[in-house]
Design goal:
The complex is a heterodimer of chains A (about 210) and B (about 325).
Chain A lengths: L8 H24 L7 H21 L1 H8 L3 H28 L4 H10 L1 H18 L3 H7 L1 H8 L1 H16 L5 H23 L11
Helix pairs in contact in A: 1-2, 1-4, 2-4, 2-9, 2-10, 3-4, 4-6, 5-6, 6-9, 7-8, 9-10
Chain B lengths: L7 H9 L2 H23 L5 H4 L12 E3 L11 H4 L14 H5 L9 E6 L5 E4 H5 L4 E9 L4 E11 H6 L9 E6 L19 E5 H5 L4 E6 L2 E2 L9 E3 L12 E7 L6 H5 L23 E4 L6 E2 L7 H4 L13
Parallel strand pairs in B: 1-4, 2-11, 5-12
Antiparallel strand pairs in B: 2-3, 4-5, 5-8, 6-7, 6-11, 8-9, 8-10, 12-13
Classes of the chains: A mainly alpha (about 210), B alpha+beta (about 325).
Chain lengths: ~210, ~325
């Protein structure tokens, strides 16, 4: 697809929206057909966490697509994809608090303090939450483009924390978290590379 | 079963005969023997003497009911056999049920080695047939905080071990799982160090609770549950219950164990179920029984304290976790 796409922007937006909602519908389908296995709570926990991180990686690949391939349309979908990442991560956290721990605040508190991977995961959530509530046009206006941009750079931190969280929670099979971390590394390296490329020329307007 | 005993002429044949022909012929002989036993011999010979050991997933007979029953709702067979940690067949819970389907468990021999007077290679049936099969309903607590209640079929491990006459140097017993990446795709990646190894202190192995299991729900073990034989130590976390055993060694010093090798801070040699000793990454205070929504408190020694707490009388269980 080039910028002279046969799809209109609106159509593309909806198409990507539907794709991003796929894992959620997949989960509902599995739940309705008894496909969640013997331990559905744990299954949902993994599933929602996995897709939260993957959606985040998709959101983070929008800007490199523009920089490398010159596609502009993905950047315009970035916010919607990011919100989907937030939706999956929030469902992941809700599943942990409301279903897995069933509001056992004491146990949750102990987890956050004593289990490093949960501390790290919570850190990622706090960042994503901040970004989600400041994702409106009004917020951009209120904060000013520059400040808003700076705040939203924290998404890199959230993604790194999410990868660490994932890596730390697996028992022995570190391959899946490593694959996600490698993809994130590539996405971040592309940014660094792009930044070094435009270091020399006079200051131009940059987007994240 | 008669045909399978270790007659030297037979084992030589087995070596030079291609596997599939060997199996076909054995099947033919089995069928013949069964027909003979059923049709002609009738009541003269006991069914047991002639019957082939049931294949994977088939019903076992003459299982003695026992008093080992916590009186809790059983976890359905469907879940016991579809939610498995058996990394030899993949690291997800559902992979083993499909990837282990074709595991060859017949013939199956177990090597007995180390500090005992009767080492050697024993056929699966030689190990099991001299004993009465028992059904024991045990709580099964995974280190990952889920649990089940499972009606295992098996024989007390201690009764089997005694027959090899362990000597005074036998202070521990080490177990080894089959190492066969051809059949066990999970072993093609070094997720754990293969083969999987586990071990028990001799008094733990000889405790009447410790079971050498060959079945579940009155049938032979499905491959994903560790066919054809595995250990069940109900007061320990599930990973101590090594599956598809091919070697048992009596040792003088504490044998290495797979999960302990993989993450020594997280998995100890003893791995007794203990609600007051957390795993570094999660609490062990509660567990979720498969099929239930609310977590329930985990019991010390998984509720088997009366039978086994004395084994650890003067030990610091936070240190020897």
């Amino acid at each position: 697809m080039s910028s002279k796409s046969s799809l209109t922007y609106r159509q593309t937006w909806w198409l990507v929206f539907l794709i991003m909602s796929g894992p959620l519908f997949g989960l509902v389908y599995l739940a309705l057909t008894g496909g969640l296995g013997a331990n559905p709570i744990q299954f949902m926990n993994r599933y929602l966490g996995d897709w939260g991180l993957r959606a985040l990686l998709v959101a983070l690949s929008m800007t490199p697509l523009k920089k490398i391939l010159g596609w502009y349309w993905p950047v315009r979908l970035r916010r919607m994809v990011g919100i989907w990442a937030f939706v999956y991560v929030t469902l992941h956290l809700t599943n942990y608090i409301a279903i897995d721990q069933f509001f056992d605040w004491q146990a949750i508190g102990v987890d956050i303090v004593k289990r490093t991977y949960i501390t790290v995961g919570m850190g990622a959530f706090v960042i994503l939450f901040t970004l989600a509530i400041t994702s409106t046009k009004r917020s951009i206006k209120r904060l000013g483009g520059k400040a808003w941009n700076r705040i939203h750079k924290y998404v890199y931190g959230a993604a790194i924390l999410a990868c660490i969280h994932y890596y730390m929670m697996v028992k022995a099979d570190t391959l899946p978290p490593i694959i996600h971390a490698v993809i994130l590394s590539i996405l971040l390296a592309l940014r660094l590379w792009a930044k070094l490329q435009i270091k020399k020329p006079v200051k131009t307007h940059q987007t994240g | 079963m008669l045909i399978k005993r270790n007659f030297p002429w037979l084992s030589n044949k087995a070596i030079i005969t291609p596997e599939h022909l060997f199996r076909q012929r054995r099947q033919f002989l089995k069928t013949g023997a069964a027909a003979l036993a059923g049709g002609i011999a009738g009541g003269v010979f006991s069914h047991q003497a002639f019957a082939a050991w049931p294949k994977a997933g088939e019903a076992l007979d003459a299982i003695k009911k026992t008093a080992y029953n916590p009186g809790e709702t059983l976890t359905p067979y469907e879940q016991v056999s579809s939610y498995n940690n058996f990394y030899e067949f993949g690291t997800s819970k559902d992979e083993p049920a499909s990837a282990a389907k074709h595991l060859q468990t017949d013939p199956w021999t177990v090597e007995i080695a180390g500090a005992c007077d009767k080492p050697g290679r024993y056929d699966f049936e030689e190990l099991i047939k001299p004993h009465d099969l028992e059904e024991r309903i045990y709580r099964h607590r995974c280190v990952e905080t889920w649990s089940m209640v499972v009606p295992w079929t098996g024989v007390p491990l201690g009764d089997v071990l005694k027959r090899f006459e362990p000597n005074s140097k036998a202070r521990y017993v080490a177990f080894e799982t089959l190492h066969d990446p051809q059949q066990m795709p999970g072993q093609r990646r070094d997720v754990l160090r293969w083969p999987y190894v586990e071990g028990l202190r001799m008094d733990e192995a000889m405790n009447p609770l410790t079971l050498l299991s060959v079945g579940v729900y009155g049938r032979t073990l499905p491959p994903q549950n560790g066919a054809p034989l595995r250990v069940i130590v109900p007061w320990k976390y599930g990973f101590k219950g090594i599956k598809s055993i091919v070697k048992i060694t009596f040792t003088e010093s504490q044998p290495p164990t797979s999960w302990n090798l993989s993450a020594p801070r997280e998995y100890g040699f003893y791995a007794n179920v203990n609600p007051s000793v957390s795993h570094p990454r999660w609490s062990q205070a509660k567990e979720r029984r498969i099929g239930e929504f609310f977590k329930k408190p985990t019991l010390p020694f998984n509720g088997y304290g009366q039978e086994v707490a004395h084994l650890y009388k003067n030990m610091d269980l936070a240190k020897y976790f």
